[in-house]
Amino acid sequence: MRISEQAKQESRARILEKAAELFTGKGFEATTTRDIALAAGLAAGTMFNYFPSKETLAMTMVTEAFRNGTTDFYRRRTGEEDLTEELFLFIASGLRRLRPLRPFLGPVLERSLSPFPRKNVCQEGEAARLNHLEAVQEIIGRHGFTTTPDYVAMTMYWSLYLGILAFWTNDASPNQEETRALIDYSLCVFVQVISGAGTDRGAAHAR
Amino acid sequence: MHAENRKTTEALNMDVLLAALPKESATDPTGRQLAQLINRIANQKVPVNSFSRIWTLGSLQARVTAGYLAYWLRSRFADADKRQQLKSAAHLAAALKLFGTMGYLRGAVMKIGQLLANLPEVVPEEFAEVLSALHFEAPPMHFAMVREVFLDEFGREPEEVFAAFDRQAFAAASLGQVHRARLHSGEEVAVKIQYPGIARTIKADLRNLRLLLQPLCLTIDWQDTLAKLADIERMLLMETDYSQEARFGKLARSAFTAADQVVVPQIYDEYSTARVLTAEYLPGCHINDFLATDPGQGERDHFTHLLTVATYRLYYRLHWLPADPHPGNFIFMADGRLGLIDFGCTLTLSDEEWIFSNVAIQAALDRDLPGLNRAIARACRFDDPDDMEPDRLEVIRSGFYWFMEPWQQEGVFDFGDRNFFLRGIDNVIEATRKGYTRSLPMTIWSNRFTFGGRAFCYKLKGRCEFRKIFLQESAGWQ
Ligand SMILES: Nc1ncnc2c1ncn2[C@@H]1O[C@H](COP(=O)(O)OP(=O)(O)OP(=O)(O)O)[C@@H](O)[C@H]1O
Ligand SMILES: [Mg+2]
Q1: What whole-number percentage of chain B has pLDDT above 70?
Q2: Hey, whose CA ends up nearest to atom 17 of ligand 1?
Q3: B 14-43 → A contacts, CB under 8 A
Q4: Residue A185 in contact with partner chain B when CB distance is under 8 A
Q5: Cβ-Cβ contacts under 8 Å for A162 (sequence gap 6 or more)
Q6: Do the Cβ atoms of B161 and B147 come closer than 8 Å?
Q7: Is B245's C-beta closer than 6 angstroms to any atom of ligand 1?
Q8: Considering only A20-29, B327-336, B443-452, B463-472, which range has the smallest mean pLDDT?
Q9: Is any Cβ of chain B less than 8 angstroms from the Cβ of A199?
Q10: Residue B280 DSSP label
Q11: pLDDT at B73
């Protein structure tokens, strides 16, 4: 029993590894589940027991990367960060773990994280979103911001975050450093809104 | 109440701007047009508190700087007819708007500002102060951003790379910021970290600027402007490569011994990359703090001597023009040594430029007028002195004579002499006003080198035996 559980874990890990190689090599769209099963030395039917679809497979990798990123974030957080800086640290830690998957992430994220209502919601994608937002809410709460209704703040945050992800998957600058500037900029905007600092409707700039 | 305050501030800003900006006697004698243009652009809404906050034209000092840039651009089409002038004014506004809205090219504008800060007679005293303060404005990278740069560059966090690392930067540079740290082996260091994406932005901004200026190509010496812009781009991009700066720093360091009392910080290669530069921390102060201690003439002369030795050592031995003589790059150390930092903007003369430069100097020293005229024609990109308007030749030549005065005087030369300094400034103003700006790109840097250094010594009210130093430093190296 224990051996078969271990064997199961091994197959699962092998599938993930081979899939990542194939996705990176031929691209997400061009890779078929058959290709993956073949590379992992499994029958296509067996593979479906582990991952019902290509999308689930890819999102499992993403979820794992995010989970590791969150762990990194908690380890790296010093407690001296202000809200913007802490959110930056959180996002940057996640992206760093996601980086190896970047070459094939565009279509994966587009399908799994789309904010629009869909027939088939990707369970892994939804779980990733909820986990991410939960962490964000914890961070915001820690800094004592409460003025904006949660669903507004979270929807805004998520829109910004999806924008950042989209830019990042396409960012040709070295180490995606342009994304870094974008994150900082976006977070400043977000924090300004939820902290109520923006309530003068820009009066500070009026002529 | 609120609005009223703002209005008064705005009016005040206008007054100060008017006082600070250069005036164009023909088209804008009061300078009001220029000031309004700058203010209009500056008042465009920009997000506060953002990553790009220090690059906005929101602050008065930035406006003054932009004003000078505008003035420079305008001087390029002073001779154009009315219709062309209007057209160019529109383009000027567009070009300035570009500065006001995006990009790190404002890092370059800031550098112009720093250069002006060296010219207290051009910019009123109080502006010289703010302009030089541009350098020390709050740095925009928070620590989490710095940590990401470290993970990319070293694969480790700053606290792992160093035994201790200050979260807060102690100085802002034009393209980065500087943190203090301590090596595991105990040495105190200064770690300069570059802002993200700067090289690409410089390229993009200059491309945009060129496009914007394109319509002016018929009214001004377009090729000349293009060549200069290309050179500025080349130098700015060079500054984004800290490994290049590290190489320059090491070469410079090897040119001085302890007896020289000039020190260039040691570079630590293991902790340096193209984006991060780690150098020995030099304790001391900048010129303003030094002057605040009310130093005696002896001390002033001492540092003027060191500065002169330092620059001409680099010129004669390494064929360098340290083209960024910003006051922040010199450190007055308590033990009487002069610290030289920042070799990011160092022009290495090509063999041809080096020979040319010395031919010109020699012609002036030998009072060889035909030879000097030929050199001047070449610097101004004419084939022959006879092709130049006599007045142009005259104005440029008297500028060069001014440059050569210290070289010819036996004994002590007083760089604090107000008359001497003003004559140099007046010459530059005259040349600019008359549109005699066509020149080899190299002259941008030699002018910065000369005026930066002289303004620094003027501010210092220092003296030195310039001729003796030049003879010593050039002996055997020419
Ligand atoms: N080794 C050092 N020791 C002490 N202070 C330093 C050192 N290096 C840098 N600094 C401080 O940091 C400031 C900026 O550094 P530096 O001049 O190297 O930056 P930069 O990017 O070249 O800026 P700029 O081109 O505007 O001069 C200096 O003016 C100085 O105050
Ligand atoms: Mg400097």
Answers
A1: 66
A2: B342
A3: 43
A4: yes
A5: A113, A115
A6: no
A7: no
A8: B443-452
A9: no
A10: E
A11: 52
Q: Does A5 touch chain B (CB under 8 A)?
A: no
Burial zone of B289 (CB within 10 Å; 0-12 exposed, 13-18 middle, 19+ buried):
exposed
Q: Is the CB of B108 under 6 A from ligand 1?
A: no
Which residues, in sequence order, are CB contacts of A200 under 8 Å at separation 6+?
A: none
Does ipTM exceed 0.95? no
| 3-state secondary structure (DSSP) of residue B437 | coil
Read off the tokens for B3. Answer: 């609005």
Please write the tens of the pLDDT for every residue from B96-110: 554 444 334 445 455
- The full set of domain ranges for chain A reads 1-51, 54-199
Q: Is A198 near chain B, with CB under 8 Å?
A: no
Homologous superfamily of domain range A1-51: Homeodomain-like (1.10.10.60)
Min Cα separation B205/chain A (Å): 15
Atom nearest to B280 CA in ligand 1: 1
Atom of ligand 1 nearest to the CA of B279: 1
Quote the Cα angle for B188-B191-B195, to 5°. Answer: 165
**Cβ burial A33-53 (10 Å sphere, 16+ → b, else e):** bebbbebbebeeeebeebbee
Write down the pTM of the prediction.
0.80
In whole numbers, what is the pLDDT of chain B averaged over residues?
Answer: 78
Kind plus residue range of the DSSP H or E element containing B383: none
CB-facing half-sphere around the CA of B311: CA atoms within 13 A? 24
Chain A partners within 8 Å of B167 (Cβ): 80
B145: Cβ below 6 Å to ligand 1? no
Sole residue written with tokens 């694969």: B155
